[in-house]
From TrEMBL:
Domain MRB1590-like C-terminal: 463-565
Coiled coil: none
Span of domain ATPase of the ABC class N-terminal: 1-161
InterPro entries cross-referenced by the UniProt entry: ABC_ATPase_C, ABC_ATPase_put, ABC_N, MRB1590-like_C, P-loop_NTPase
Protein name as catalogued: ATPase
SUPFAM superfamilies from the UniProt entry: P-loop containing nucleoside triphosphate hydrolases (SSF52540)
Domain ATPase of the ABC class C-terminal: 165-446
Amino acid sequence: MKQLLQTLKQIDGKGYKAYKSVQGHYRFSDFDLYIDYVQGDPFATPSKIRAVIPANKRALEASWLESYRRRVATEDVIARKVGNAIGKGDFSIKGSGKSGSIQFDRPGQEVLERSAVQADSKSITICISVGLPANGRKINGREAEKLFADAIPTILRNSVFSISDEEIEGTIKLADQQEAIRAEMHKNNWISFVANGSVLPRGSGVSNRPLKGAVPFQSPIENEVSIEIPHQTEPIKGMVIEKGITLIVGGGYHGKSTILEAIERGIYCHTKGDGREYVLTDPDAVKIRAEDGRQVTGVNISPFINNLPHKQDTTFFSTENASGSTSQAANVMEALEAGADTLLIDEDTSATNFMIRDQRMQQLVHKDKEPITPFIDKIRQMRDQLDVSTLLVMGGSGDYFDVADSVIMMEAYVPYNVTGEARAIISENPVGRLSEQENGFGSISARYFQQQSLQTHKGKKSKTQAKGLTKILMGQTDITFAATEQLVDPSQTRMIAEIIQYLDRTNALGNRTLNELLNDIEQQMNQKGLASFTTFKDQHPGDIARPRRYEIAAVLNRMRTAKVK
Ligand code: ADP
Ligand code: MG
Protein backbone atom coordinates (compact mmCIF):
# COMPACT_ATOMS: atom_id res chain seq x y z
CA MET A 1 0.00 0.00 0.00
CA LYS A 2 2.84 2.34 0.87
CA GLN A 3 4.18 1.99 -2.62
CA LEU A 4 0.81 2.89 -4.16
CA LEU A 5 0.46 5.96 -1.96
CA GLN A 6 3.97 7.04 -2.85
CA THR A 7 3.25 6.76 -6.55
CA LEU A 8 0.03 8.73 -6.12
CA LYS A 9 2.03 11.53 -4.45
CA GLN A 10 4.50 11.52 -7.31
CA ILE A 11 1.89 11.76 -10.05
CA ASP A 12 -0.35 14.24 -8.23
CA GLY A 13 -1.16 17.18 -10.51
CA LYS A 14 0.25 15.48 -13.61
CA GLY A 15 -1.71 14.71 -16.77
CA TYR A 16 -4.27 11.92 -16.41
CA LYS A 17 -2.24 9.49 -18.55
CA ALA A 18 0.31 9.25 -15.74
CA TYR A 19 -2.26 7.16 -13.84
CA LYS A 20 -1.20 4.26 -16.08
CA SER A 21 1.79 3.86 -13.80
CA VAL A 22 -0.38 2.68 -10.89
CA GLN A 23 -1.41 -0.43 -12.75
CA GLY A 24 -0.15 -3.43 -10.79
CA HIS A 25 -0.30 -5.40 -7.58
CA TYR A 26 -0.21 -3.91 -4.06
CA ARG A 27 -0.28 -5.56 -0.66
CA PHE A 28 -2.62 -4.09 1.92
CA SER A 29 -2.74 -5.32 5.50
CA ASP A 30 -5.58 -7.77 5.01
CA PHE A 31 -6.00 -8.04 1.26
CA ASP A 32 -4.20 -7.75 -2.05
CA LEU A 33 -5.16 -5.00 -4.45
CA TYR A 34 -4.78 -5.43 -8.18
CA ILE A 35 -5.23 -2.43 -10.44
CA ASP A 36 -5.84 -4.27 -13.69
CA TYR A 37 -6.94 -1.56 -16.04
CA VAL A 38 -6.59 2.20 -15.87
CA GLN A 39 -9.03 4.43 -17.72
CA GLY A 40 -7.67 6.88 -20.31
CA ASP A 41 -9.41 9.98 -18.94
CA PRO A 42 -11.76 10.92 -16.10
CA PHE A 43 -14.83 10.61 -18.32
CA ALA A 44 -14.03 7.17 -19.76
CA THR A 45 -15.24 3.79 -18.52
CA PRO A 46 -13.93 3.53 -14.94
CA SER A 47 -10.77 1.66 -14.04
CA LYS A 48 -10.97 -1.98 -13.06
CA ILE A 49 -9.59 -3.21 -9.78
CA ARG A 50 -9.73 -6.40 -7.74
CA ALA A 51 -9.45 -6.94 -4.02
CA VAL A 52 -8.29 -10.44 -3.19
CA ILE A 53 -8.85 -11.52 0.39
CA PRO A 54 -6.78 -14.55 1.38
CA ALA A 55 -8.40 -17.38 3.35
CA ASN A 56 -6.37 -16.58 6.48
CA LYS A 57 -8.18 -13.20 6.65
CA ARG A 58 -11.68 -14.44 5.86
CA ALA A 59 -12.00 -18.19 5.74
CA LEU A 60 -14.83 -19.92 3.93
CA GLU A 61 -15.89 -23.37 5.10
CA ALA A 62 -15.06 -26.06 2.56
CA SER A 63 -18.71 -27.17 2.67
CA TRP A 64 -19.87 -23.76 1.41
CA LEU A 65 -17.97 -24.31 -1.80
CA GLU A 66 -18.52 -28.00 -2.29
CA SER A 67 -21.12 -27.81 -5.06
CA TYR A 68 -21.76 -25.39 -7.91
CA ARG A 69 -25.03 -24.09 -6.38
CA ARG A 70 -23.47 -23.67 -2.95
CA ARG A 71 -20.50 -21.78 -4.31
CA VAL A 72 -22.73 -19.49 -6.36
CA ALA A 73 -24.91 -18.88 -3.29
CA THR A 74 -21.85 -18.00 -1.19
CA GLU A 75 -20.54 -15.62 -3.82
CA ASP A 76 -23.99 -14.10 -4.20
CA VAL A 77 -24.50 -13.33 -0.52
CA ILE A 78 -21.05 -11.73 -0.33
CA ALA A 79 -21.80 -9.70 -3.46
CA ARG A 80 -25.01 -8.39 -1.88
CA LYS A 81 -23.00 -7.32 1.18
CA VAL A 82 -20.41 -5.55 -0.95
CA GLY A 83 -23.19 -3.85 -2.90
CA ASN A 84 -24.77 -2.62 0.35
CA ALA A 85 -21.45 -1.44 1.73
CA ILE A 86 -20.83 0.62 -1.40
CA GLY A 87 -24.40 1.95 -1.41
CA LYS A 88 -24.25 3.03 2.23
CA GLY A 89 -20.73 4.39 2.13
CA ASP A 90 -20.27 8.13 1.77
CA PHE A 91 -16.68 8.58 0.77
CA SER A 92 -17.12 12.06 -0.72
CA ILE A 93 -14.30 11.74 -3.19
CA LYS A 94 -14.46 14.73 -5.45
CA GLY A 95 -13.36 15.65 -8.92
CA SER A 96 -14.25 15.85 -12.58
CA GLY A 97 -16.08 13.26 -14.65
CA LYS A 98 -16.34 9.91 -12.92
CA SER A 99 -13.83 10.84 -10.23
CA GLY A 100 -14.47 8.80 -7.13
CA SER A 101 -17.34 6.79 -8.48
CA ILE A 102 -17.36 3.22 -7.20
CA GLN A 103 -19.26 0.70 -9.26
CA PHE A 104 -20.03 -2.87 -8.47
CA ASP A 105 -22.19 -5.48 -10.18
CA ARG A 106 -24.72 -5.90 -7.40
CA PRO A 107 -27.06 -8.87 -7.90
CA GLY A 108 -30.77 -8.32 -8.54
CA GLN A 109 -33.53 -10.67 -7.38
CA GLU A 110 -31.98 -13.70 -9.06
CA VAL A 111 -29.02 -15.65 -7.75
CA LEU A 112 -26.76 -15.96 -10.79
CA GLU A 113 -23.19 -17.03 -11.27
CA ARG A 114 -21.37 -13.74 -11.81
CA SER A 115 -17.82 -12.44 -11.96
CA ALA A 116 -18.30 -9.73 -9.32
CA VAL A 117 -17.32 -12.08 -6.50
CA GLN A 118 -15.32 -15.25 -6.99
CA ALA A 119 -14.67 -17.56 -4.07
CA ASP A 120 -12.52 -20.63 -3.69
CA SER A 121 -10.68 -22.36 -0.87
CA LYS A 122 -7.71 -19.98 -1.12
CA SER A 123 -9.31 -16.56 -1.45
CA ILE A 124 -12.25 -14.32 -2.19
CA THR A 125 -11.94 -11.99 -5.17
CA ILE A 126 -14.05 -8.83 -5.40
CA CYS A 127 -14.19 -7.02 -8.75
CA ILE A 128 -14.89 -3.31 -8.52
CA SER A 129 -14.70 -0.41 -10.97
CA VAL A 130 -13.51 2.98 -9.79
CA GLY A 131 -13.21 6.41 -11.34
CA LEU A 132 -9.68 7.58 -10.62
CA PRO A 133 -9.98 11.15 -9.31
CA ALA A 134 -8.95 14.21 -11.30
CA ASN A 135 -9.29 17.96 -11.31
CA GLY A 136 -10.19 18.66 -14.89
CA ARG A 137 -7.79 16.31 -16.62
CA LYS A 138 -5.08 16.49 -13.97
CA ILE A 139 -4.55 13.72 -11.47
CA ASN A 140 -5.84 14.41 -7.99
CA GLY A 141 -3.55 12.22 -5.92
CA ARG A 142 -5.02 13.26 -2.60
CA GLU A 143 -8.52 12.12 -3.53
CA ALA A 144 -7.06 8.94 -5.06
CA GLU A 145 -5.41 8.27 -1.73
CA LYS A 146 -8.81 8.52 -0.02
CA LEU A 147 -10.18 6.06 -2.54
CA PHE A 148 -7.53 3.41 -1.99
CA ALA A 149 -6.57 3.98 1.63
CA ASP A 150 -10.04 4.67 2.99
CA ALA A 151 -12.95 3.81 0.69
CA ILE A 152 -11.89 0.36 -0.52
CA PRO A 153 -10.76 -0.89 2.94
CA THR A 154 -13.99 0.47 4.47
CA ILE A 155 -16.11 -1.31 1.89
CA LEU A 156 -14.31 -4.57 2.59
CA ARG A 157 -14.58 -4.05 6.33
CA ASN A 158 -18.35 -3.59 6.00
CA SER A 159 -18.81 -6.61 3.76
CA VAL A 160 -16.31 -9.46 3.47
CA PHE A 161 -14.89 -8.86 6.93
CA SER A 162 -18.22 -8.40 8.69
CA ILE A 163 -20.48 -10.96 7.07
CA SER A 164 -21.23 -13.65 9.63
CA ASP A 165 -21.04 -17.37 9.09
CA GLU A 166 -24.77 -17.52 9.90
CA GLU A 167 -25.59 -15.17 7.05
CA ILE A 168 -23.66 -17.29 4.60
CA GLU A 169 -25.17 -20.47 5.98
CA GLY A 170 -28.68 -19.04 5.61
CA THR A 171 -28.09 -18.64 1.88
CA ILE A 172 -26.51 -22.07 1.61
CA LYS A 173 -29.56 -23.60 3.26
CA LEU A 174 -31.91 -21.92 0.80
CA ALA A 175 -29.73 -23.08 -2.10
CA ASP A 176 -29.82 -26.66 -0.75
CA GLN A 177 -33.60 -26.51 -0.47
CA GLN A 178 -33.99 -25.19 -3.99
CA GLU A 179 -31.71 -27.96 -5.23
CA ALA A 180 -33.72 -30.58 -3.36
CA ILE A 181 -36.96 -29.33 -4.92
CA ARG A 182 -35.38 -29.34 -8.38
CA ALA A 183 -34.17 -32.91 -7.88
CA GLU A 184 -37.66 -34.01 -6.82
CA MET A 185 -39.17 -32.25 -9.83
CA HIS A 186 -36.77 -33.99 -12.14
CA LYS A 187 -37.53 -37.39 -10.62
CA ASN A 188 -41.29 -36.92 -10.93
CA ASN A 189 -41.49 -35.20 -14.32
CA TRP A 190 -42.82 -31.96 -12.87
CA ILE A 191 -42.12 -28.89 -14.94
CA SER A 192 -42.90 -26.38 -12.24
CA PHE A 193 -43.39 -26.11 -8.50
CA VAL A 194 -45.03 -23.12 -6.80
CA ALA A 195 -44.91 -23.29 -3.01
CA ASN A 196 -47.85 -22.28 -0.91
CA GLY A 197 -47.29 -18.85 0.56
CA SER A 198 -45.22 -17.63 -2.40
CA VAL A 199 -45.68 -14.01 -3.45
CA LEU A 200 -45.93 -13.94 -7.23
CA PRO A 201 -46.85 -10.39 -8.31
CA ARG A 202 -44.12 -7.78 -8.60
CA GLY A 203 -44.17 -4.29 -7.18
CA SER A 204 -44.87 -2.71 -10.54
CA GLY A 205 -44.26 -3.17 -14.23
CA VAL A 206 -40.74 -1.83 -13.73
CA SER A 207 -39.93 -3.36 -10.37
CA ASN A 208 -38.79 -6.90 -9.82
CA ARG A 209 -39.48 -6.68 -6.08
CA PRO A 210 -42.45 -8.37 -4.43
CA LEU A 211 -45.82 -6.58 -4.35
CA LYS A 212 -46.71 -5.55 -0.82
CA GLY A 213 -50.04 -6.86 0.44
CA ALA A 214 -50.34 -9.50 -2.29
CA VAL A 215 -52.56 -12.55 -1.90
CA PRO A 216 -50.16 -15.38 -1.05
CA PHE A 217 -50.21 -18.40 -3.33
CA GLN A 218 -52.28 -21.44 -2.36
CA SER A 219 -52.26 -24.64 -4.39
CA PRO A 220 -55.45 -26.40 -5.47
CA ILE A 221 -55.73 -29.66 -3.48
CA GLU A 222 -55.59 -31.75 -6.67
CA ASN A 223 -52.18 -30.34 -7.60
CA GLU A 224 -50.68 -30.16 -4.14
CA VAL A 225 -47.60 -32.15 -3.25
CA SER A 226 -45.38 -32.11 -0.25
CA ILE A 227 -41.63 -32.33 -0.60
CA GLU A 228 -39.08 -33.14 2.09
CA ILE A 229 -36.36 -30.52 2.06
CA PRO A 230 -33.14 -30.20 4.06
CA HIS A 231 -32.66 -27.80 6.99
CA GLN A 232 -36.28 -27.90 8.12
CA THR A 233 -38.45 -30.57 9.66
CA GLU A 234 -41.73 -29.69 7.95
CA PRO A 235 -41.95 -30.67 4.28
CA ILE A 236 -42.74 -27.86 1.86
CA LYS A 237 -46.14 -27.90 0.16
CA GLY A 238 -47.19 -26.41 -3.11
CA MET A 239 -48.61 -26.82 -6.56
CA VAL A 240 -46.95 -28.87 -9.26
CA ILE A 241 -47.46 -28.60 -12.98
CA GLU A 242 -46.84 -31.99 -14.54
CA LYS A 243 -45.32 -32.68 -17.91
CA GLY A 244 -47.82 -32.50 -20.74
CA ILE A 245 -50.26 -29.77 -21.71
CA THR A 246 -51.55 -27.44 -19.02
CA LEU A 247 -53.94 -24.57 -19.57
CA ILE A 248 -54.32 -21.62 -17.25
CA VAL A 249 -57.72 -20.03 -17.74
CA GLY A 250 -59.69 -17.40 -15.84
CA GLY A 251 -61.20 -13.97 -16.14
CA GLY A 252 -59.22 -10.91 -17.12
CA TYR A 253 -57.20 -9.40 -14.27
CA HIS A 254 -57.45 -12.54 -12.15
CA GLY A 255 -53.72 -13.24 -12.09
CA LYS A 256 -53.05 -15.52 -15.08
CA SER A 257 -50.12 -13.63 -16.55
CA THR A 258 -48.69 -13.07 -13.09
CA ILE A 259 -48.45 -16.77 -12.33
CA LEU A 260 -47.01 -17.52 -15.77
CA GLU A 261 -44.37 -14.82 -15.34
CA ALA A 262 -43.39 -16.21 -11.95
CA ILE A 263 -43.08 -19.65 -13.53
CA GLU A 264 -41.01 -18.21 -16.41
CA ARG A 265 -38.56 -16.77 -13.89
CA GLY A 266 -38.47 -20.01 -11.91
CA ILE A 267 -35.73 -21.15 -14.26
CA TYR A 268 -33.53 -19.06 -11.93
CA CYS A 269 -33.16 -19.28 -8.18
CA HIS A 270 -34.32 -16.20 -6.30
CA THR A 271 -32.87 -14.54 -3.27
CA LYS A 272 -34.33 -14.72 0.22
CA GLY A 273 -37.30 -12.40 0.67
CA ASP A 274 -38.16 -12.30 -3.04
CA GLY A 275 -41.41 -14.21 -2.63
CA ARG A 276 -40.43 -16.62 -5.40
CA GLU A 277 -37.68 -18.49 -3.53
CA TYR A 278 -39.70 -21.66 -3.83
CA VAL A 279 -41.07 -21.12 -7.32
CA LEU A 280 -38.96 -23.39 -9.47
CA THR A 281 -39.27 -24.34 -13.10
CA ASP A 282 -37.64 -26.76 -15.52
CA PRO A 283 -34.42 -24.96 -16.53
CA ASP A 284 -35.14 -25.89 -20.16
CA ALA A 285 -38.47 -24.05 -20.22
CA VAL A 286 -38.61 -21.27 -22.79
CA LYS A 287 -41.10 -18.42 -23.07
CA ILE A 288 -42.57 -18.17 -26.53
CA ARG A 289 -44.25 -15.07 -27.87
CA ALA A 290 -45.03 -13.17 -31.01
CA GLU A 291 -42.37 -10.66 -31.98
CA ASP A 292 -43.26 -8.98 -35.23
CA GLY A 293 -40.48 -7.13 -36.96
CA ARG A 294 -37.76 -9.53 -35.89
CA GLN A 295 -35.10 -10.95 -38.15
CA VAL A 296 -35.36 -14.67 -38.96
CA THR A 297 -32.57 -16.51 -40.76
CA GLY A 298 -32.95 -19.91 -42.38
CA VAL A 299 -35.37 -21.47 -39.89
CA ASN A 300 -37.60 -24.41 -40.76
CA ILE A 301 -41.02 -23.07 -39.76
CA SER A 302 -42.88 -25.49 -42.05
CA PRO A 303 -44.48 -27.42 -39.16
CA PHE A 304 -46.56 -24.27 -38.61
CA ILE A 305 -46.40 -22.25 -41.82
CA ASN A 306 -46.72 -23.53 -45.39
CA ASN A 307 -47.76 -22.30 -48.81
CA LEU A 308 -46.93 -18.66 -48.25
CA PRO A 309 -47.86 -16.32 -51.09
CA HIS A 310 -45.20 -16.22 -53.82
CA LYS A 311 -44.06 -19.71 -52.76
CA GLN A 312 -41.59 -18.53 -50.14
CA ASP A 313 -39.68 -21.48 -48.76
CA THR A 314 -40.74 -22.16 -45.19
CA THR A 315 -38.31 -25.03 -44.59
CA PHE A 316 -35.52 -22.45 -44.78
CA PHE A 317 -37.34 -19.28 -43.94
CA SER A 318 -35.65 -15.90 -43.77
CA THR A 319 -37.09 -12.44 -43.34
CA GLU A 320 -35.98 -9.09 -42.01
CA ASN A 321 -39.45 -8.32 -40.83
CA ALA A 322 -41.42 -11.28 -39.53
CA SER A 323 -45.17 -11.04 -38.97
CA GLY A 324 -46.80 -11.89 -35.64
CA SER A 325 -47.50 -15.49 -36.61
CA THR A 326 -44.25 -16.20 -38.47
CA SER A 327 -42.21 -14.67 -35.64
CA GLN A 328 -44.00 -16.84 -33.11
CA ALA A 329 -43.49 -19.92 -35.28
CA ALA A 330 -39.79 -19.07 -35.57
CA ASN A 331 -39.56 -18.59 -31.82
CA VAL A 332 -41.02 -22.06 -31.23
CA MET A 333 -38.80 -23.73 -33.80
CA GLU A 334 -35.65 -21.99 -32.58
CA ALA A 335 -36.41 -22.97 -28.99
CA LEU A 336 -36.77 -26.60 -30.06
CA GLU A 337 -33.54 -26.38 -32.07
CA ALA A 338 -31.70 -25.11 -28.99
CA GLY A 339 -33.07 -27.98 -26.88
CA ALA A 340 -36.11 -26.62 -25.03
CA ASP A 341 -38.41 -29.18 -23.49
CA THR A 342 -41.12 -26.93 -22.11
CA LEU A 343 -42.82 -24.01 -23.84
CA LEU A 344 -44.49 -21.21 -21.86
CA ILE A 345 -47.05 -19.12 -23.73
CA ASP A 346 -49.32 -16.23 -22.76
CA GLU A 347 -52.25 -15.28 -24.96
CA ASP A 348 -51.51 -11.61 -24.17
CA THR A 349 -48.30 -11.78 -26.19
CA SER A 350 -49.35 -14.30 -28.83
CA ALA A 351 -50.59 -13.91 -32.38
CA THR A 352 -54.24 -15.04 -32.38
CA ASN A 353 -54.00 -16.66 -35.82
CA PHE A 354 -50.99 -18.63 -34.65
CA MET A 355 -52.84 -19.98 -31.62
CA ILE A 356 -56.36 -20.73 -32.89
CA ARG A 357 -58.50 -21.19 -35.97
CA ASP A 358 -62.04 -21.99 -35.05
CA GLN A 359 -64.72 -23.98 -36.81
CA ARG A 360 -66.40 -21.04 -38.52
CA MET A 361 -63.15 -19.66 -39.81
CA GLN A 362 -62.23 -23.10 -41.12
CA GLN A 363 -65.48 -23.06 -43.10
CA LEU A 364 -64.95 -19.61 -44.55
CA VAL A 365 -61.23 -19.74 -45.28
CA HIS A 366 -60.19 -23.07 -46.66
CA LYS A 367 -57.12 -24.89 -45.37
CA ASP A 368 -55.43 -24.58 -48.76
CA LYS A 369 -55.77 -20.78 -48.54
CA GLU A 370 -54.37 -20.58 -45.01
CA PRO A 371 -50.61 -20.97 -44.60
CA ILE A 372 -50.83 -21.37 -40.82
CA THR A 373 -51.38 -24.65 -39.04
CA PRO A 374 -52.37 -23.32 -35.63
CA PHE A 375 -50.50 -24.23 -32.49
CA ILE A 376 -53.55 -26.09 -31.19
CA ASP A 377 -53.05 -28.71 -33.90
CA LYS A 378 -49.34 -29.20 -33.15
CA ILE A 379 -49.37 -29.09 -29.37
CA ARG A 380 -50.11 -32.81 -28.90
CA GLN A 381 -47.59 -33.86 -31.52
CA MET A 382 -44.96 -31.94 -29.61
CA ARG A 383 -45.96 -33.72 -26.43
CA ASP A 384 -46.14 -37.19 -27.98
CA GLN A 385 -43.39 -37.11 -30.60
CA LEU A 386 -40.90 -34.64 -29.14
CA ASP A 387 -41.64 -34.98 -25.41
CA VAL A 388 -42.12 -31.21 -25.23
CA SER A 389 -44.61 -29.86 -22.69
CA THR A 390 -46.64 -26.67 -22.99
CA LEU A 391 -47.98 -24.41 -20.27
CA LEU A 392 -50.40 -21.98 -21.80
CA VAL A 393 -52.40 -19.04 -20.51
CA MET A 394 -55.58 -18.97 -22.55
CA GLY A 395 -58.64 -17.14 -21.31
CA GLY A 396 -60.04 -16.47 -24.75
CA SER A 397 -60.66 -19.84 -26.42
CA GLY A 398 -62.22 -23.03 -25.09
CA ASP A 399 -61.03 -24.94 -28.15
CA TYR A 400 -57.89 -25.74 -26.17
CA PHE A 401 -59.92 -27.83 -23.67
CA ASP A 402 -59.79 -30.61 -26.27
CA VAL A 403 -56.03 -30.87 -26.18
CA ALA A 404 -55.27 -30.10 -22.53
CA ASP A 405 -54.18 -32.68 -19.98
CA SER A 406 -55.02 -30.36 -17.15
CA VAL A 407 -56.77 -27.03 -16.67
CA ILE A 408 -56.13 -24.54 -13.87
CA MET A 409 -58.47 -21.61 -13.35
CA MET A 410 -57.33 -18.41 -11.67
CA GLU A 411 -60.03 -16.69 -9.68
CA ALA A 412 -59.12 -13.60 -7.71
CA TYR A 413 -55.47 -14.77 -7.68
CA VAL A 414 -56.38 -18.21 -6.35
CA PRO A 415 -55.90 -21.25 -8.60
CA TYR A 416 -58.49 -24.02 -8.89
CA ASN A 417 -58.16 -27.29 -10.74
CA VAL A 418 -61.06 -27.35 -13.22
CA THR A 419 -59.90 -30.22 -15.44
CA GLY A 420 -63.08 -32.19 -14.64
CA GLU A 421 -65.40 -29.30 -15.50
CA ALA A 422 -63.55 -28.65 -18.74
CA ARG A 423 -63.95 -32.33 -19.70
CA ALA A 424 -67.67 -32.19 -18.95
CA ILE A 425 -68.02 -29.13 -21.17
CA ILE A 426 -66.20 -30.91 -24.00
CA SER A 427 -68.64 -33.80 -23.93
CA GLU A 428 -71.70 -31.58 -23.64
CA ASN A 429 -70.61 -29.10 -26.31
CA PRO A 430 -68.33 -30.92 -28.72
CA VAL A 431 -66.51 -28.59 -31.08
CA GLY A 432 -66.88 -29.36 -34.76
CA ARG A 433 -63.53 -27.96 -35.79
CA LEU A 434 -61.32 -30.22 -37.86
CA SER A 435 -57.87 -31.01 -36.72
CA GLU A 436 -55.37 -29.73 -39.25
CA GLN A 437 -52.42 -31.75 -38.11
CA GLU A 438 -50.43 -33.81 -40.53
CA ASN A 439 -48.99 -37.16 -39.48
CA GLY A 440 -45.68 -36.12 -38.05
CA PHE A 441 -44.73 -32.92 -36.26
CA GLY A 442 -42.21 -32.13 -38.99
CA SER A 443 -38.50 -31.53 -38.70
CA ILE A 444 -36.46 -29.07 -36.71
CA SER A 445 -33.60 -27.05 -38.20
CA ALA A 446 -30.02 -27.94 -37.35
CA ARG A 447 -28.39 -24.80 -38.65
CA TYR A 448 -24.71 -24.01 -39.04
CA PHE A 449 -24.07 -20.34 -38.43
CA GLN A 450 -21.34 -19.14 -40.75
CA GLN A 451 -18.33 -17.25 -39.46
CA GLN A 452 -19.18 -14.16 -41.52
CA SER A 453 -22.35 -13.77 -39.45
CA LEU A 454 -20.15 -12.07 -36.87
CA GLN A 455 -19.39 -8.61 -38.17
CA THR A 456 -17.67 -7.17 -35.14
CA HIS A 457 -15.54 -4.64 -36.94
CA LYS A 458 -16.05 -0.94 -36.76
CA GLY A 459 -13.23 0.52 -38.78
CA LYS A 460 -10.10 -1.29 -37.69
CA LYS A 461 -11.38 -2.13 -34.24
CA SER A 462 -13.33 -5.24 -33.41
CA LYS A 463 -15.92 -4.49 -30.77
CA THR A 464 -19.08 -6.04 -29.38
CA GLN A 465 -20.68 -4.17 -26.54
CA ALA A 466 -23.83 -4.60 -24.48
CA LYS A 467 -26.13 -1.60 -24.22
CA GLY A 468 -28.33 -2.35 -21.26
CA LEU A 469 -30.40 -5.50 -21.04
CA THR A 470 -31.83 -5.89 -24.50
CA LYS A 471 -29.35 -4.55 -27.01
CA ILE A 472 -25.86 -5.41 -28.18
CA LEU A 473 -23.82 -3.28 -30.48
CA MET A 474 -21.83 -5.60 -32.74
CA GLY A 475 -19.42 -3.71 -34.95
CA GLN A 476 -21.68 -1.37 -36.86
CA THR A 477 -24.95 -3.17 -36.31
CA ASP A 478 -27.38 -3.35 -33.42
CA ILE A 479 -28.74 -6.65 -32.24
CA THR A 480 -32.00 -6.02 -30.39
CA PHE A 481 -33.90 -8.59 -28.38
CA ALA A 482 -36.41 -6.73 -26.23
CA ALA A 483 -38.88 -9.63 -26.43
CA THR A 484 -36.45 -12.16 -24.95
CA GLU A 485 -38.19 -12.13 -21.60
CA GLN A 486 -36.14 -14.67 -19.69
CA LEU A 487 -32.98 -12.62 -20.00
CA VAL A 488 -33.05 -10.75 -16.70
CA ASP A 489 -29.73 -9.12 -15.89
CA PRO A 490 -27.61 -6.70 -17.99
CA SER A 491 -24.57 -8.68 -16.85
CA GLN A 492 -25.97 -11.65 -18.79
CA THR A 493 -26.18 -9.41 -21.84
CA ARG A 494 -22.55 -8.34 -21.30
CA MET A 495 -21.60 -12.01 -21.12
CA ILE A 496 -23.39 -12.74 -24.40
CA ALA A 497 -21.50 -9.84 -25.99
CA GLU A 498 -18.26 -11.39 -24.70
CA ILE A 499 -19.28 -14.75 -26.13
CA ILE A 500 -19.89 -13.20 -29.56
CA GLN A 501 -16.53 -11.47 -29.44
CA TYR A 502 -14.92 -14.78 -28.39
CA LEU A 503 -16.58 -16.73 -31.20
CA ASP A 504 -15.26 -14.14 -33.61
CA ARG A 505 -11.74 -14.16 -32.17
CA THR A 506 -11.46 -17.93 -32.14
CA ASN A 507 -13.13 -18.52 -35.49
CA ALA A 508 -15.54 -20.85 -33.75
CA LEU A 509 -18.55 -20.91 -36.05
CA GLY A 510 -19.16 -22.82 -39.22
CA ASN A 511 -18.21 -26.35 -38.31
CA ARG A 512 -20.87 -27.20 -35.74
CA THR A 513 -24.60 -26.81 -35.49
CA LEU A 514 -26.06 -24.14 -33.26
CA ASN A 515 -27.09 -26.81 -30.78
CA GLU A 516 -23.55 -28.24 -30.66
CA LEU A 517 -22.13 -24.75 -30.33
CA LEU A 518 -24.39 -24.07 -27.33
CA ASN A 519 -23.26 -27.36 -25.75
CA ASP A 520 -19.65 -26.33 -26.16
CA ILE A 521 -20.25 -22.86 -24.74
CA GLU A 522 -21.99 -24.36 -21.69
CA GLN A 523 -19.21 -26.85 -21.22
CA GLN A 524 -16.59 -24.11 -21.33
CA MET A 525 -18.55 -22.03 -18.80
CA ASN A 526 -18.73 -25.09 -16.54
CA GLN A 527 -15.11 -26.11 -16.84
CA LYS A 528 -13.21 -22.87 -17.32
CA GLY A 529 -15.59 -20.27 -15.97
CA LEU A 530 -17.30 -17.23 -17.42
CA ALA A 531 -14.09 -15.21 -17.55
CA SER A 532 -12.51 -17.69 -19.96
CA PHE A 533 -14.48 -16.02 -22.77
CA THR A 534 -13.02 -12.59 -22.07
CA THR A 535 -9.63 -11.14 -22.87
CA PHE A 536 -8.98 -10.42 -19.18
CA LYS A 537 -9.43 -13.88 -17.86
CA ASP A 538 -7.05 -13.72 -14.91
CA GLN A 539 -7.93 -10.12 -14.14
CA HIS A 540 -11.15 -8.18 -13.60
CA PRO A 541 -13.01 -9.75 -16.52
CA GLY A 542 -15.82 -7.17 -16.65
CA ASP A 543 -19.20 -7.44 -14.98
CA ILE A 544 -20.60 -10.63 -16.41
CA ALA A 545 -23.21 -13.16 -15.31
CA ARG A 546 -24.22 -16.52 -16.67
CA PRO A 547 -26.90 -16.64 -19.37
CA ARG A 548 -28.78 -19.77 -20.40
CA ARG A 549 -28.20 -21.38 -23.78
CA TYR A 550 -31.66 -20.23 -24.90
CA GLU A 551 -30.87 -16.58 -24.40
CA ILE A 552 -27.48 -16.93 -26.11
CA ALA A 553 -29.30 -18.53 -29.04
CA ALA A 554 -31.94 -15.79 -28.96
CA VAL A 555 -29.29 -13.15 -29.52
CA LEU A 556 -27.51 -15.06 -32.29
CA ASN A 557 -30.87 -15.68 -33.96
CA ARG A 558 -31.61 -11.96 -34.04
CA MET A 559 -28.37 -10.86 -35.69
CA ARG A 560 -29.30 -9.04 -38.85
CA THR A 561 -25.97 -10.14 -40.27
CA ALA A 562 -26.57 -13.87 -39.72
CA LYS A 563 -25.64 -16.30 -42.49
CA VAL A 564 -26.65 -19.90 -41.98
CA LYS A 565 -26.49 -23.21 -43.81
P1 ADP B 1 -54.59 -11.56 -16.12
O1 ADP B 1 -53.42 -12.03 -16.91
O2 ADP B 1 -55.42 -12.68 -15.60
O3 ADP B 1 -55.42 -10.57 -16.86
P2 ADP B 1 -52.63 -10.34 -14.37
O4 ADP B 1 -51.80 -11.49 -14.03
O5 ADP B 1 -52.10 -9.38 -15.36
O6 ADP B 1 -54.09 -10.80 -14.81
O7 ADP B 1 -52.94 -9.61 -13.00
C1 ADP B 1 -53.73 -8.46 -12.91
C2 ADP B 1 -53.27 -7.59 -11.74
O8 ADP B 1 -53.42 -8.26 -10.51
C3 ADP B 1 -51.82 -7.17 -11.82
O9 ADP B 1 -51.72 -5.80 -11.51
C4 ADP B 1 -51.14 -8.01 -10.76
O10 ADP B 1 -50.02 -7.35 -10.20
C5 ADP B 1 -52.24 -8.21 -9.74
N1 ADP B 1 -52.05 -9.48 -9.03
C6 ADP B 1 -51.73 -10.67 -9.58
N2 ADP B 1 -51.61 -11.63 -8.64
C7 ADP B 1 -51.86 -11.03 -7.46
C8 ADP B 1 -51.87 -11.49 -6.10
N3 ADP B 1 -51.61 -12.75 -5.80
N4 ADP B 1 -52.15 -10.58 -5.14
C9 ADP B 1 -52.41 -9.30 -5.46
N5 ADP B 1 -52.41 -8.81 -6.70
C10 ADP B 1 -52.13 -9.65 -7.69
MG1 MG C 1 -52.85 -11.55 -18.82
